Amino acid sequence: MTEAARATLDELFPQRAARMHSQVLAIRDLEVRFGGVSALAGIGLDLADDELVAVIGPNGAGKSTLLNAICGVVRGNARGSIELLGQQILGRPAYVVADLGVGRSFQDPPLIDTETVLENVMVGAHLRLRYSMFDQVFLRRKVRRYEDEARRRALTALDLAGLTRHVDDLVAGLPYGTRKLIDIARSLMSGPALLLLDEPTSGLDSDEQARVKQMLLEIKSSQRVTVLVVEHHMELVRAVADKVVGLQAGTVLAVGSPHEVLDSADFRAALVGAGQPADAKAVPPENTTAST
């Protein structure tokens, strides 16, 4: 990692205190049902400190549902146990889970079209802006200090995403790939302990995919955050992942290193198709609806 990249990640993920738990995420017997349909069943998964784990699988395997369960989006439909740094988060509202240290990007980015790129990214800093209504009325200098810090962090995140030239552009009308990168930049703003990325390269051109790959490698090298990424580009998975989790029909089919999972006969037969190379782009991006 270059000194410039290290300084960027230091700005986004300040030096953290020593953690009491080397295991950031622990999932046990996770089940998610929508009516009579089981989207996830018996899921068990551990993510260690600073680990980058890729979740792969065909459409409908439950990849996005797994992320939704972790961040509290489908809490009324989920059963089992999800612990973040030793604290139970399953069943807690999404805003509480975010405040406890979970950042999230989405396959279909929920951006504010009437605001600029910078303002959209700054929205991700709201958990760090610890000022009250009283402060806004009587302690404006304090408020400006927090807001200046948020602006600086947002500019840093946009630089990491290669979006500096779009800082003052309105989001409305920007291409899909740019919107995806904005959403990823926004997910970094709270300096999360756990970063969830849902299909970060889907719909991106080759240059944008290369930017996401570089971002993930730099985040991984920073050793500041644990990442769980849903991804269907297998060459990216090989390049960035410490561990790969293969899902099929809502259950865990395989867990191991990229080599162990992607080159296994079971993976090729069940997830890619027997006889196809493991780097084939044959695993389609998962629909983001809750029933996946």
List keywords for this structure.
about 290 residues; alpha/beta; Rossmann fold; six-stranded mixed β-sheet; 11 helices; about 35% helix; globular; disordered C terminus
Strand residues, percent = 15-25%
Average pLDDT, to the nearest integer?
84
What is the end-to-end distance? 37 Å
Largest sheet: 6 strands, mixed
Class by SSE composition: alpha/beta
Strand elements, count: 10
Low-confidence stretches: 280-284, 286-292
Number of helices: 11
CATH superfamily of one domain: P-loop containing nucleotide triphosphate hydrolases
Give me the side-by-side strand order of the main sheet: 6-7-8-3-9-10
**What fraction, in percent, of the residue positions are helical?**
25-40%
What name is given to the CATH topology of one domain?
Rossmann fold
| The CATH top-level class label of one domain | Alpha Beta
Per CATH, the architecture of one domain is 3-Layer(aba) Sandwich
Order of helices and strands: HEEEHEEHEHHHHEHEHEEHH
Shape: globular
Radius of gyration in whole Å, from Cα? 19 Å
